[in-house]
Design goal:
Elements lengths: L53 E2 L31 H9 L3 E2 L5 E2 L2 H7 L40 H6 L2 H8 L11 H7 L12 H9 L5 H10 L1 H8 L9 H4 L11 H6 L1 H7 L3 H15 L3 H13 L9 H16 L4 H8 L3 H6 L10 E2 L1 H8 L11 H10 L3 E4 L2 E4 L9 E3 L2 E3 L6 H16 L2 H15 L6 H13 L4 H9 L2 H5 L8 H11 L19 H16 L22 H16 L21 H13 L5 H11 L15 H9 L2 H4 L2
Parallel strand pairs: 1-4
Antiparallel strand pairs: 2-3, 5-6, 7-8
Keywords: Membrane, Transmembrane, Transmembrane helix
InterPro entries: DUF1800 (IPR014917)
Pfam family, one: DUF1800
Length: 677
């Protein structure tokens, strides 16, 4: 039998993940501290009636998410101060987006303030520090085996981050309730946003910011031309949206259409070309986020890749992660979640990622069974117990992978009655196909469970409405999910028809990946190589190389598609991403993009962003601000940007802003208006 690739145990954290283990870890290949990849024993005589033994849930550690320190501070003001204010202080005063403190507007976090002022940062790990290690609500972690509902726990990682002073401040500025209208346009028309935000209260801009990876002049024009209702319906039918040039160029990524068998057979040749399949899949995802017109579909693909998460970089991902993206996530992203979860549980990627291939009746690995309940369906507070996890793990034995394909091994399957939550079955079929179908029935059951309906509803509301979504919209989305048997389009249509969505302008902050992708989009970067590009020595095209460079930058920033190594996916709330270094690194990258330094793609020269640049500095700033962030600046914001350039509003400027246009564009791209979505 192959080595049992079980990563090191995870520590217990504030959501109750406790790293249970068998009393004798050596007996069943469970890793010890110094030996995370201990070989599993040979499979015993199948004629002996198996006695279940347990390989605990410690298969994938859940270390807390840590942001990289980031780079780039030295070139924040690399060309020195202009006029009365240094560029660093002017830029940070304008762009230090961090937390919607007290519901007023974006303000700098303590970490950011500490870089540029003498104010001390908050002590990490104390109450109110959302990224610290101490539990902030005074409770201990949930003991293993105890019903989640009997102690105070967080339902999932987003809520755990929001259980802090910062989260409480954000909640004060979120919509508190609302109603559903006949359609998105009616809801937009009848809703008057009351939240305090620096964003313009423009429903078209708001829809473009939430339902895409970043508003562009074309997207805004499309919504205004088609109308809100027609645009949403168009986005919900992505098969009818023509591929863009950036999508057609994905043919240059040779591994995207290959199956596991082809990838295995051609592994050496692909390695020689640098065409790593799992990385090309990430490259393609980035390209679609930037250039596809199927923007709502891509947003939902990203949502499901966090919700039903399989890391791109797991051992085996080079063979199987691309088809998981294609045949599970993308196939069902706007379809049925129960069908998606069933397909995922039959896919080699998930079965290998969570060690289900090693689970058999006499040595049961509960990793997949646990995550199916805790992360992919009902949630940690969904009402299940440790007994339910074990019953589910027993039921799912027999599923695995052979010759890179899904198999059901009847000889490894546990036979006998099982009961998980409200699902029960005799589970005594001799026919392997019937036994396998019982597992599908169970997966469908938990995907339609009321707790799953609420979990999906809350996660969607967190993605599209606010980090602390109102209970009213979660309740309604939960009912729509249940009434439509887990179909996603009706849930999204209900969400866009809710006043809470239209009232929540400015209540989401872009994560690092979203910020960078939105920057490419708003700058109008094109997928062709620039005339100045000089090909390297490798066999890959400029397009392929350019996408890999974006991926490398996203890895440096701490977020890239399918990048979280653990099965919980990336958090979708702002307080999980408060890193001054990451923020400044993103600003510097935005400056490089505005300057057009990445020649693998075609950039508009910064002085060409406006077709007819005004002749005075103040008017130029107004026009460029509207071009890049789609609204006009306030008088204070204009003054801050002029401070970056060191000029007065009445100063005469040429199309290059007297040589400062890149610095001005970078300042605008560091603004709260570009950080918010």
């Amino acid at each position: 039998m192959a080595d049992q690739n079980v990563p090191p145990r995870r520590p217990r954290d504030d959501r109750g993940w406790d790293g249970r283990q068998h009393p004798d870890p050596d007996a069943y290949g469970v890793p010890t501290a110094g030996d995370p990849y201990r070989p599993a024993p040979a499979y015993p005589n199948p004629t002996v009636a198996p006695t279940p033994q347990w390989v605990g849930p410690e298969g994938l550690s859940r270390q807390s998410f840590a942001q990289p320190a980031g780079a780039g501070l030295p070139n924040l003001d690399d060309d020195g101060p202009r006029g009365g204010a240094g560029r660093r202080r002017a830029l940070v005063a304008f762009g230090g987006a961090a937390v919607i403190a007290g519901g007023a507007a974006l303000a700098m976090s303590p970490a950011v303030r500490g870089l540029f002022t003498d104010e001390p940062a908050e002590v990490p790990g104390v109450a109110g520090d959302a990224t610290g290690t101490r539990v902030t609500d005074g409770t201990a972690a949930r003991p293993s085996g105890q019903k989640p509902v009997t102690v105070r726990t967080y339902t999932e990682q987003n809520e755990s981050y929001m259980g802090s002073r910062a989260g409480a401040a954000l909640k004060k500025n979120s919509p508190t309730g609302g109603r559903t209208f006949s359609g998105p346009a009616a809801a937009a028309k009848e809703t008057t946003p009351t939240v305090r935000t620096v964003l313009a209260k423009d429903p078209v801009r708001h829809l473009a910011s939430r339902a895409t990876f970043g508003a562009t002049p074309k997207v805004l024009a499309d919504i205004r031309r088609m109308g809100v209702d027609a645009w949403v319906r168009w986005q919900l039918d992505p098969e009818k949206i023509a591929p863009t040039k950036g999508e057609l160029k994905l043919a240059e990524l040779s591994t995207l259409t290959m199956g596991a068998k082809q990838l295995r057979e051609q592994r050496d040749q692909l390695n020689q070309r640098g065409a790593q399949p799992e990385k090309e899949m990430v490259d393609a995802t980035i390209a679609r986020q930037i250039w596809s017109d199927r923007q709502l579909y891509e947003v939902m693909v990203d949502f499901w890749n966090d919700f039903l998460h399989v890391s791109a970089d797991f051992d085996g991902g080079e063979l199987h992660r691309n088809s998981f993206d294609r045949d599970v996530i993308r196939k069902h992203a706007l379809g049925s979640y129960p069908e998606m979860l069933v397909a995922a549980n039959r896919h080699p990627a998930l079965l290998l990622y969570l060690n289900q291939n090693d689970s058999r009746a006499d040595a049961i690995n509960e990793n997949l069974a646990r995550e199916n309940l805790e992360l992919y369906s009902v949630g940690v507070d969904g009402g299940y117990t440790e007994k339910d996890v074990r019953q589910a793990a027993m039921l799912q034995t027999g599923r695995g992978v052979n010759d890179d394909e899904y198999v059901f091994r009847a000889e490894r399957h546990y036979k006998g009655k099982v009961k998980v939550l409200g699902f029960s079955h005799a589970n005594n079929f001799d026919d392997p196909k019937q036994a396998d179908k019982v597992i599908d029935s169970y997966i469908t059951y938990i995907a339609l469970h009321p707790s799953t309906a609420r979990y999906v509803a809350r996660s969607l509301a967190t993605r599209f409405v606010s980090d602390t979504p109102p209970k009213s919209i979660v309740d309604r989305l939960e009912k729509v999910y249940t009434a439509n048997h887990g179909m996603i389009k009706p849930v999204l249509m209900s969400l866009f028809s809710a006043s809470e969505f239209w009232a929540a302008i400015g209540q989401k902050v872009r994560r690092p990946m979203e910020y960078l992708v939105a920057t490419y989009r708003t700058l109008g970067v094109r997928p062709d190589a620039s005339p100045e590009h000089k090909p390297g020595d490798n066999q890959r095209t400029p397009y392929a190389e350019g996408l890999r460079q974006i991926q490398d930058k996203l890895r440096e920033l701490g977020q890239y598609p399918m990048g979280q190594p653990t099965p919980d996916g990336y958090p979708d709330v702002y307080v999980a991403w408060t890193s001054a270094g990451t923020m400044v690194n993103g600003w510097n990258e935005a400056g490089d993009l505005a300057a057009g330094w990445r020649t693998h793609f075609t950039f508009s020269k910064p002085e060409k962003l406006l077709a007819d640049p005004p002749a005075t500095a103040g008017a130029y700033v107004d026009a460029l601000f509207k071009r890049l962030v789609h609204q006009k600046p306030t008088a204070r914001e204009r003054a801050l940007i002029l401070g970056v350039a060191g000029v007065e509003a009445s100063t005469k400027v040429d199309p290059t802003f007297n040589g400062a246009v890149t610095a001005v564009a970078r300042a605008i791209l560091a603004s709260p208006q570009h950080h918010l979505r």
